[in-house]
Amino acid sequence: MKIFFSLFFIAASFLGCYGQPAKTVVNNNSKILAGAERTETYLPLLKNKKVGLFANQTSTVGNTHLVDTLQKLGVNVTVIFGPEHGFRGTADAGEKIGNYIDEKTKIPVVSLYGSKRRPSEEDLKNVDVLVFDIQDVGVRFYTYISSMEEFMEAAFEHNKPLLILDRPNPNGHYVDGPVLDKKYQSFVGRQEVPIVYGMTMGEYAMMIAGEKRLSDAANKKYSYYQTTEKTVDTPFHFMVIKNGNYDHKSMYELPVRPSPNLPNIQSIYLYSSTCFFEGTVLSEGRGTDKPFMVFGHPSLPKNLYSFTPNPNEGAKSSKLYGQKCYGWDLSGTPEEVLAKVDNRIQLKWLLEAYRLFPDKEKFFMLPKSGNMEQSFFNKLAGNNELWKQIKAGKSEDEIRASWQPGLDAFKVIRKKYLLYPDFE
Questions:
Q1: Which residues pair with 297 in a beta bridge?
Q2: For position 168, what pLDDT does the model report?
Q3: Which residues of 59-85 are buried (b: 16+ CB within 10 A; e: fewer)?
Q4: Which fold has domain 3-256?
Q5: Minimal CA–CA distance to 351: which of 269, 268, 276, 266?
Q6: Which of 339, 279, 309 is nearest to 141 (CA)?
Q7: Domain spans, the chain
């Protein structure tokens, strides 16, 4: 019996009605429910089990953290795993975090964004079932999909059942950008997917497992799980709890900021277009109240919008602090910003910033080696072509045309793993 597929679709098909929903609704005016809110569906799977939970500040059921909810419902959470920005979501981007005891719950927290990126066998010795519940923003260089991939590999390799509580994707209504060339694989881009992939975490997890894109050991275990019989001790191997009342046309506004420098839905809509500036000498707005909504540099024309970045909570160190920068302010209402993005990655701001920058040889940040091929910009772009296209004066339309073959091939794969009605 193919227990993986039968159990997956049983759990994923139920619609729950528990908890306080997020602000937005889908076209049928029904409240969107994140997978974590559908407790009646997955609580039986955690009963009498020791649970290891990968979570952060977005892991909520209504206004209550998932850890607190599970404890109140009698679930035995024995260890918490924390991603980039930490379990409580306050650390700087890239800041390494150690292990500690969570003050509120008294549960040990193991950092998976410090000295290691995945749980060890020792970390899992007191765990029967692993649960993953973190809000994504649907952009390849946002590191939580990489964290989930490492978590999946650890679960499969160590024979731990894995439950993913799905959450809506605020950028799940389109697919765009260059598909990653695996030569430029890193933690800000591990898989051959476009920058905006139009999938929820649950769908993405199904894809990388189904396409055998995990470690060799995890792929072998996954294949075994698809054909093995269930037992009383292992009622499932890998399962996704679907969102309720969600589809890929849903415009979902997150109830909790997913990280310190994505403070609102406007920054999330712009992130896929403006994060490129992290690979340049320009400020991407860290150290202001509009990260990823403003960007600029002291050497750009002084008739442009001006701002001065300074250290703040979640951005204690970054580029150009204390220096007056000139550039652009893309902020506005959610509707205004969504119209600016227009359901695709916008390159016009990057191209215009390069055109106006006086010393073009210093526009892109170089690594210590001085080799542009090894640059952070290439990790963000996922290739060694975009910076060359910009430098050569290619138009946005010409650059976008170079993406199309990869996008067409990816969309065929993506379709196989969608759990919700698509936008097209």
A1: 326
A2: 98
A3: bbbeeebbbebbeeeebebbbbbbbbb
A4: Rossmann fold (3.40.50)
A5: 276
A6: 279
A7: 3-256, 265-413
| Ramachandran category for residue 62: left, alpha or beta (phi over 0 → left; psi -120 to 50 → alpha) | left
Quickly tell me which residue has 């072509």 as its tokens. 385
Place of tokens 């799905």: 166
User: Hey, what amino acid is at 124?
Assistant: L
241: left (phi over 0), alpha (psi -120 to 50) or beta: beta
- DSSP conformation letters of 339-408: HHHTTS---HHHHHHHHH-S-GGGSBPP-TT--GGGSHHHHHHTSSSHHHHHHTT--HHHHHHHHHHHHH
- Return phi, psi of residue 405, to 5°: -60, -45
Question: What is the rounded distance in angstroms from the CA atom of residue 155 to the CA atom of residue 238?
Answer: 9
DSSP state of 190: -
pLDDT for residue 290 is more than 60: yes
CB 414 within 8 A of CB 197: yes
CA 32 to chain centroid, in Å, comes to 19
E-state strands within 56-197: 60-61, 64-65, 76-82, 100-101, 108-111, 129-133, 162-165
pLDDT tens figures, 326-349: 999 999 999 999 999 999 999 999
Q: pLDDT tier at 318 (50, 70, 90 boundaries)?
A: confident
- Residues 420 and 247: beta-carbon distance below 8 Å: yes
